[in-house]
Amino acid sequence: MFGGGGGGLNPRKMEQMMEQMGIDVEDIDAEEVIIRTGEYDLVFDDAEVTKMDARGQETYQIIGSPEEVEAGSAGSADDAGTDDDGSAIPDEDVDLVATRAGVGEDEAREALDANDGDLAAAVEDLE
């Protein structure tokens, strides 16, 4: 993708180039990743997860081999996405809404709860 010839770019040089382009890269210490579809669930145990943030657009890369299981059988729906405080709203979503709307985390969480986790609707309500 970048550079030509030989062995390509070393990871440090690639990281510097991405930083110059405004792309932040973060490794996420994921224990499990579940992708739910209407037909099956894909369960990644000990997957390598990388988050790239390019000027507010977040992209997640999952590296690993998933196990395909029956739809809805990976974990329970009651436990899925529940944070330590019992909320089904991920902390990352709360942070994003709080930042975008310029409000505190409690207010952002309330707006997300009121809008069933819809980020855009929560931000719109707070503006």
TrEMBL record:
<keyword id="KW-0813">Transport</keyword>
<dbReference type="GO" id="GO:0015031">
    <property type="term" value="P:protein transport"/>
</dbReference>
<comment type="subunit">
    <text>Homodimer. Interacts with the ribosome. Binds ribosomal RNA.</text>
</comment>
<dbReference type="InterPro" id="IPR002715">
    <property type="entry name" value="Nas_poly-pep-assoc_cplx_dom"/>
</dbReference>
<feature type="domain" description="NAC-A/B">
    <location>
        <begin position="8"/>
        <end position="75"/>
    </location>
</feature>
<dbReference type="InterPro" id="IPR009060">
    <property type="entry name" value="UBA-like_sf"/>
</dbReference>
<dbReference type="GO" id="GO:0003723">
    <property type="term" value="F:RNA binding"/>
</dbReference>
<dbReference type="InterPro" id="IPR038187">
    <property type="entry name" value="NAC_A/B_dom_sf"/>
</dbReference>
<dbReference type="InterPro" id="IPR005231">
    <property type="entry name" value="NAC_arc"/>
</dbReference>
<feature type="compositionally biased region" description="Acidic residues">
    <location>
        <begin position="80"/>
        <end position="93"/>
    </location>
</feature>
<comment type="function">
    <text>Contacts the emerging nascent chain on the ribosome.</text>
</comment>
<keyword id="KW-0653">Protein transport</keyword>
<comment type="similarity">
    <text>Belongs to the NAC-alpha family.</text>
</comment>
<protein>
    <recommendedName>
        <fullName>Nascent polypeptide-associated complex protein</fullName>
    </recommendedName>
</protein>
<keyword id="KW-0694">RNA-binding</keyword>
<dbReference type="Pfam" id="PF01849">
    <property type="entry name" value="NAC"/>
</dbReference>
<feature type="region of interest" description="Disordered">
    <location>
        <begin position="63"/>
        <end position="93"/>
    </location>
</feature>
